[in-house]
Amino acid sequence: MLEATKSQNPPIEAPTNPALAAEAKIARIAVTVFPLLVVAAGVLGFFIPGAFKPLGPSVPYLLGIIMFCMGLTLTPPDFAAVAKRPWAVVLGIVAHYVIMPGAGWLIAVALNLEPELAVGLILVGCAPSGTASNVMAFLAKGDVALSVAVASVSTLIAPIVTPLLVLFLAGSYLQIDAGAMVGDIVKTVLLPVVAGLLARLFLRKLVTKVLPALPWASAVVISLIVAIVVAGSSSKIVAAGGIVFLAVVLHNGFGLGLGYLAGKVGRLDDKARRALAFEVGMQNSGLAATLATAHFSPLAALPSAVFSLWHNISGAIVAAWLARRPLQDAKSA
After folding, report:
1. How confident is the model at residue 261 (pLDDT cuts 50, 70, 90)?
2. Alpha-carbon gap, residue 122 to 175, rounded angstroms
């Protein structure tokens, strides 16, 4: 949920508002430090699993905190952007929920992953957009308004879309209780997001004061989730870690590349394409880890933990690379 940079609507590429500029600076630092926090959390979870395994039942509540923070960053204009640009938003949503689930299934089949890992990878692909995607779009000089709209809608429809996709694509590997999964996503994602949005509407002054701290809060909580997930599967990481890392790198790479290509096929401008690259390629791995732990096993949550680390590293690298490339105009794109 590192969306603090977009919480106001003046031109975001060159913020003139001092408060907005400060939020942008904090977001850049958080995105830089975030992968290091996740790596540190993963190492701690691996080497001292006993310290984190008992925290397993708290993972859904930790995810609820992250989603509440995301709700705090949303404003009515974010949803108005959907009505103003329905084609671009629909394209982003369809690309996200077609490319990533499909790529997850294809990679699981191609690498002949064992059932629990296959389901875990597919589950990551079926999750909504990642919580740091908006900031990556900002750093890449992409269309932040579009990024926020796609992330918000993909999150709000996740209680229906995610379980159905998991049931369709992963049902041949393990038994899927789609109904229970719907309930879990409503409790851990939808309700906290709505609560955060209402808090933003009715406690505006208080929320404005805490906005700069939200990227750090999100980074710390996600890192704790990673530590817990890694601790739960620490005994199997040595054997499965290599193949899982390969699967995650391929999955994320396909998402980033095909997300940008989807924008190009849809004849969107370069700023919008950059936004879609991150909205498609970055997943809410915290949700995927929560669902995997609750419905399958700690091993099934391992792809989510690795994805949480890798997509922030790759996202930051791609964002920095795109930021150095001039934006293409509509004619030359």
Report:
1. very high
2. 14
Taking the alpha carbons at both ends of the chain, their separation in whole angstroms is 30
Q: Which of 27-31, 101-105, 198-202 has the highest mean pLDDT?
A: 101-105
Model pLDDT for residues 167-199, shown as the tens digit of each residue: 999 887 878 888 888 988 888 888 888 888 888
CA distances from 183 to 20, 60, 84, 267 (A): 37, 12, 31, 37
- How much is the pLDDT for 12? 41
Q: Which residues contact 176 (CB under 8 A, 6 or more apart)?
A: 163, 166, 167, 170, 295
Residues 313, 132: Cα–Cα separation, whole Å = 11
Judge whether 67 and 60 are in contact, CB under 8 Å: no
Q: What angle do CA 285, 170, 58 make, to 5 degrees?
A: 40
Query: Can you say whether residue 17 is alpha, beta or left, with left for phi > 0 and alpha for psi between -120 and 50 degrees?
Result: beta
Helices (H), 186-233: 191-202, 204-210, 214-232
Give the whole-angstrom CA distance, residue 160 versus residue 75. Answer: 23
**Better pLDDT: 234 or 123:** 123
Joined together, the tokens standing for residue 295 give: 């419905």
pLDDT of 201 > 50? The answer is: yes
| 3-state SS assignment for residue 3 | coil
pTM summary value: 0.81
Instruction: Quote the CA–CA distance of 286 and 241 in Å, as a whole number.
Output: 18
DSSP per residue over 222-261, as a string? Answer: HHHHHHHHHHHTHHHHHHHHHHHHHHHHHHHHHHHHHHHH
Question: Can you read off the two tokens belonging to residue 201?
Answer: 């509407």
Residue with tokens 């995810």: 63
Measured distance CA(27)–CA(134) in Å, rounded: 10
Of 41, 34, 4, the residue nearest 21 (C-alpha) = 4
CA–CA distance, 40 with 233 (Å, rounded to integer): 16
